[in-house]
Design goal:
Two copies of one chain form a homodimer. With 414 residues, chain A is of the alpha+beta class. Chain A has two domains: 23-230, Enterococcus faecalis V583 domain (Enterococcus faecalis V583 fold, Alpha-Beta Complex), CATH 3.90.1710.10; 242-412, v583 fold (Alpha-Beta Complex), CATH 3.90.1700. Chain A is built from 14 helices and 15 strands. Chain A is globular.
Chain lengths: 414, 414
């Protein structure tokens, strides 16, 4: 009979000992395993076109326009309807994408390598806030920015990253949690660190100094510039803890805007899915919760790795963005200790006397205590073409943990 | 009869409404009022050579070597003994200096202008940690770095600052308090912000890209790079609240390593002084409190303006550097509300539900409650030529507040 405690200890130890380092930037088709010219990756568990959420459809339109395969949304939709486009979750290809999470073959992606165990993960370049592809916008200025990111930003980032020893994501996050970040929705300090680490290298590797200045400004002005490498870093950590025989630890939480899905370390690549939740949010001026798409994106990989909503106690100022009070932020983290296996060895929270963040969601505890993982997230408009409308907090549906526990009992014969 | 409450409200309102902006860098002799070729400024209240602390003497030796007036410490001391050097507090010239705080005529200084009331203040460029002039070190590598700062760094900073709209110190500090900084000893987030704001401009104004990269790296690697502009910013704020008839608010707290001195808004330029305290500190490896010089530096201008030790609740991670627990940090801030007049309008503490920092030390409350202002500070070696040995917390002597209150009663006839 399998020793679940021992299995979980191994899974979580591997997650915590993973040391993700950003090592470069390249075109998705050149580096993402299994990427091919007709494939588009998206956030969350698998989903068919007819059930696909508005912002994912918007990002698909944008990606097909960006790839030069369609001139507009109508042409893009016709391609999809004609069966010329294949879809797969980012997670099926060791990748992660915030919000819609669409990655197309020509897009530049970050490459993050776990130096402890050798595995890699991938994520696109962050566009900043506002009208952006990941929120389902696909207007000409969105596409133009994507092109600049691919042609100018990406190659410079690749050279700048390689000019140094790469960017140690675990160290950067550990510092950021001492600087008021949660590691998911609030990454102000981490993004500043990131810009600071790369800026001198960007200057050295860029021919035109105006281009160097523009790139440094673009990274420095975007409080989420480090989000995508952080997500890929968390993916390498949770991948390192995946496929441990007998472990009840969650290694993927992801949403496609329609469904919320999880994977469990001891249950291989099976998804357990249920309806994506409604985000309790602060809305930007002019929007209400009627505009909101349900919960969406792979960014819940941060909570899966022990940061984000789980580390909110470290980030009291985040409540100005997602609603609530600093006390709520503390309580969220305290609650999450109830459903996790360990306290993180490297991610600590000064406000809780440097206690490690709650790490390694145990499906047994979630079900026994009836307490769900807490996630903080951005909110996209439910229709394609619009963009972000707010940010807030949300939980997954309970059934996915129950279903996973049933599957676990069946597989391991409890 | 003067209305003290009204006077204090006016003094503190002026302090809070001051909006310091970093506007440039220039040689001290070109911009500091009253600077002349034989004058050296130092931290704290006035002090004569025979009572001058070791680190100040070390910085004086270094400054005279830097100015080309002496080849070594012996020649520098001979110049002083021969009466060829004049000394004055930085505060007598609207300047502030951390630790020894020595400013010589040729040194490049930051110029900070309070855009609300128009007054200016000045401070040197920050050298980073370790063997540095401000800690009393004066070896050839210390002098070489000073020369690089004067010849390379200073002119580039001046152009980079002027390339934009300057650097808004109040906005930067307000953000930093939401990112785990206290605004005095912990300025990690503020220094990152500072580097990020200037980096693109540095790239544009610098001819050689290796020089630009070197300068960005120098600023970005120094978690105190913004300390000196912050201090000058706080000086412009407290200056704006100075000389309000009938006010019992402290507008200067400063130490020269021998004496701790204060000035009070309603008592003009009179100093009230007592012995500088022993810092309760965490020491760097190899040093103990036997090596420590007493409390030193003008950096207490931050606490005078409502940040630093007074905002420690915002900076729980600072305890890894200065000793204590996060709870002590919270309690320090809570205590300081007992002896201050107001809660800051722009500097808020997320951990205390965004309460404004305790601002405007009232000498009446200090004496009535027997509670002293709390300061966190670096510790210099007591001998010239060595440098920093630790960091910790300290309080001023009580007599200076009592003496000030007696003087206030005499002047205003209570």
């Amino acid at each position: 009979m399998v020793d679940i405690e021992q299995a979980n200890a191994k899974a979580v130890e591997r997650m915590m000992e993973a040391r993700p380092v950003l090592v470069g930037v390249a075109k998705a088709i050149e580096v993402i395993p299994g990427m091919h010219p007709n494939l588009l990756l998206h956030a969350g568990p698998p989903v068919t076109w007819d059930r696909m959420a508005g912002p994912v459809k918007g990002a698909v339109f944008g990606a097909l326009i960006f790839e030069g395969k369609a001139k507009n949304a109508e042409e893009a939709e016709a391609l999809v309807q004609a069966g010329k486009v294949e879809f797969a979750p980012c997670h099926h290809h060791d990748a992660v994408g915030p919000m819609a999470g669409v990655i197309s073959p020509s897009m530049m992606v970050y490459i993050v390598e776990n130096k402890t165990h050798g595995n890699r993960a991938y994520s696109g370049l962050n566009e900043g806030r506002g009208k952006v592809l990941r929120m389902g916008a696909y207007s000409p200025e969105v596409i133009a920015k994507m092109q600049w990111m691919n042609e100018v930003l990406g190659p410079v980032l690749d050279s700048a990253i390689k000019e140094g020893d790469g960017v140690d994501i675990r160290t950067l996050l550990a510092k950021a949690l001492h600087m008021g970040d949660d590691g998911h929705n609030r990454l102000d300090a981490a993004s500043l660190q990131y810009t600071n680490i790369l800026a001198p290298n960007i200057v050295r590797v860029t021919k035109e100094k105006n281009t160097a200045a523009e790139i440094i400004r673009f990274l420095g002005d975007n409080a989420l510039s480090i989000l995508n490498p952080v997500m890929a870093g968390c993916k390498t950590m949770t991948l390192a803890g995946h496929n441990v025989e007998g472990s009840t630890i969650v290694t993927v939480m992801a949403r496609n805007g329609t469904d919320f899905g999880i994977r469990v370390s001891g249950l291989g690549d099976q998804w357990f899915t249920g309806p994506a939740g409604h985000v309790k949010a602060l809305y930007f001026p002019g929007f209400t919760d009627k505009d909101a798409n349900p919960d969406i994106g792979d960014s819940t990989i941060t909570e899966t790795a022990g940061i984000g909503g789980f580390a909110m106690a470290a980030a009291p100022a985040i409540v100005t963005f997602i609603s609530g009070t600093p006390k709520d932020a503390i309580n969220t983290t305290l609650d999450m200790y109830e459903i996790t296996f360990a306290e993180h060895k490297y991610f600590t929270i000064p406000q809780l006397d440097f206690r490690g963040t709650p790490t390694g969601i145990d499906i047994r505890k979630v079900v026994e205590k009836g307490m769900l993982p807490r996630v903080n997230t951005g909110v996209a408009h439910k229709d394609p073409g619009i963009g972000q409308v707010g940010a807030g907090v949300v939980t997954p549906p309970m059934n996915i943990f129950e279903d996973a526990l049933v599957a676990f009992a069946e597989k391991y014969g409890f």
